[in-house]
Design a protein that fits this description.
Bound molecules: adenosine-5'-diphosphate
CATH superfamily of the largest domain: Putative sugar-binding, N-terminal domain
Number of helices: 15
CATH topology of the largest domain: Rossmann fold
Number of strands: 18
Largest sheet: 15 strands, mixed
CATH class of the largest domain: Alpha Beta
Radius of gyration: 22 Å
Strand order of the largest sheet: 9-10-5-11-4-1-3-2-16-17-18-15-12-14-13
Length: 423
């Protein structure tokens, strides 16, 4: 199996989002945490490399993206996708433009498109201006983002200082006329030496037209939504054979653990809903752990019947989190809980847990690292943007789902296991 599309994502949750949308097609999607070091073994039709380069210095971000490209080329991929945030998170230095330009140079192509639109999530582009819901980007809360404050809504003006080549626009009027019109506009832009084309999209149908027109470009760039139609298009035009590797959902023992280190309001509701069912649960007390260590929770875990899906949680109300942070410090409290849950994950796996639910973005990072997971096959979606993933850990196949803060319904924890049973 050679890879049809090699994707590079600028952060971890963005990579999961992209992988999940590609996997909706039922085709096998593989997610790599960082650039793999070894030789390519068993590449999937869609490969996603998750980097963490959104706010790195430009030289470092481009070097990492080029290393990812080198690895992806070894999978046989000839088309590549540079995925960034649907709010175009970047500064005047980069990294969206510089990475795109470095990838273009390496691929020997002189034109690409930029389409961060994600209509289902309220991100739309009209006349090159990005909207978040009904607000222009620069009037949305992104205006005050701590690392990448977005103070202009016009994608051409945002991109121009980031790149050497000329920037152009394919507007909605052209997109609405379909793939042929889009391709003709790209040819005209190429004659004007426009290398970087922002493309308008306000609805999913626009994304389908753009994906149809651009599916054979060496490099496409955008948010995750533009990539969603690609598996279907590649299957329809024969680029991907009909017997291409399909998603395989392994049957794993119903030996389960839920680890929650998220204090977001939705996670608080999810924990409350689970507790209301009378499920076995252990609440972590950060102050007690700071004083007495983590043996008590490990002892509790060792006594549990994992088929009853016990929950270990630090999830707490904002007031109680603040009180803990005042005593321990924000970073120290966070680290303490993350490491405790990471140790619990390893202990649970070692006593047979094969279905592991993790709530919390940072918590997920700590848990995957402790479980030494460096590759995941994407499985069925539990909630929008939250798929089950299958990985090797400690010599066993495990199912893992990584839910960041506000994702999922209040019944997420039970939804997760029902989804896996039904798959
Ligand atoms: P989310 O996706 O909801 O932002 P994260 O895991 O990314 O969740 O972040 C939550 C942070 O809060 C983690 O660093 C976690 O260790 C920390 N934390 C969790 N519970 C508590 C608590 N009771 N007191 C203090 N910090 C906590």
């Amino acid at each position: 199996m050679t890879t049809v599309l090699g994707c590079i994502a600028d952060d971890f949750t963005g990579a999961t989002d992209l992988a999940g949308l590609l996997a909706r097609s039922g085709v096998r999607v593989s997610l790599r945490m960082g650039v793999p070091t070894g030789p390519v073994a068993d590449p999937a039709p869609f490969e996603v490399v998750a980097l963490k380069i959104r706010t790195n210095p430009v030289a470092d971000a481009t070097a990492q993206a080029l290393a990812a490209l080198d690895w992806l080329r070894q999978t046989g991929a000839q088309r590549f996708y540079w995925k960034y945030c649907s709010t175009f998170d970047s500064t005047a230095e980069g990294n969206i433009g510089p990475v795109a330009e470095a990838l273009m140079a390496a691929l020997g192509t002189d034109q690409t498109i930029y389409c961060p639109a994600f209509p289902e999530n309220g991100r739309a582009i009209f006349m090159g201006n990005l909207f978040v819901g009904q607000q222009p980007l620069a009037e949305s809360p992104m205006r005050n983002h701590p690392l990448t404050p977005m103070r202009d809504s016009n994608l051409m003006r945002l991109l121009a200082p980031q790149v050497q080549g000329a920037v152009g626009l394919i507007d909605r009027l052209t997109v609405a006329r379909g793939p042929e019109a889009i391709r003709a506009a790209m040819t005209r832009a190429a004659a004007d030496r426009q290398a970087h084309l922002v493309v308008d999209a306000v609805a999913n149908d626009d994304l389908s037209q753009i994906a149809t027109a651009c599916r054979d470009l060496p490099l496409m760039t955008g948010g995750s939504a533009l990539a969603m139609p690609l598996p279907g298009l590649y299957l329809a035009d024969g680029t991907l054979s009909a017997d291409a590797a399909r998603m395989v959902v392994p049957t794993l023992p119903a030996s389960r653990i839920i680890l929650s280190g998220s204090c977001s309001s939705m996670t608080n509701q999810q924990v409350a809903a689970y507790l209301a069912q009378g499920r076995p649960a252990y609440q972590l007390d950060p102050l007690a752990i700071a004083e007495n260590g983590i043996q008590p929770v490990l002892d509790w875990l060792a006594s549990q019947d994992l088929t009853r899906a016990p929950l270990i949680y630090a999830t707490a109300s904002p007031d109680s989190v603040r009180a803990v942070q005042d005593k321990l410090g924000v970073a120290a409290a966070g680290e303490l809980i993350e490491q405790t849950l990471a140790r619990c994950a390893v202990a649970a796996r070692d006593t047979g847990a094969r279905q592991i639910v993790v709530a919390g973005g940072e918590t997920s990072g700590a848990v995957t690292q402790a479980l030494e997971v460096d590759q995941m096959d994407i499985g069925p979606e539990i909630a929008p943007g939250v798929p089950w993933c299958f990985a090797q850990s400690g010599g066993s196949r495990i199912a893992l789902t990584l839910k960041s803060g506000n994702f999922g319904a209040p019944t997420f924890f039970t939804d997760a296991f029902t989804t896996l049973e039904a798959a």
